[in-house]
Please model this.
Amino acid sequence: MRARRATCTEDDIKLLKTRVVTLSDNTYHADDLHVLKTNKEVDNHNLSQINKSQSHIHEIKAIDK
Model:
């Protein structure tokens, strides 16, 4: 995608702006896929979703090789 390479066209920007939904928007759904600007925002959203979950949470430690 051109956005990842920072080579967006004006049409790309216009299209992306049509997809922006705020928390106060009546079309906002917390369970929908979110695209956020920072890792901190992602972490906060993911933690919020986990805390709402009624399921048992399993934590698995990753090992980088």
Remarks:
- Residues 51 and 57 are 10 Å apart (CA to CA).
- Helices lie at 10-17, 39-52.
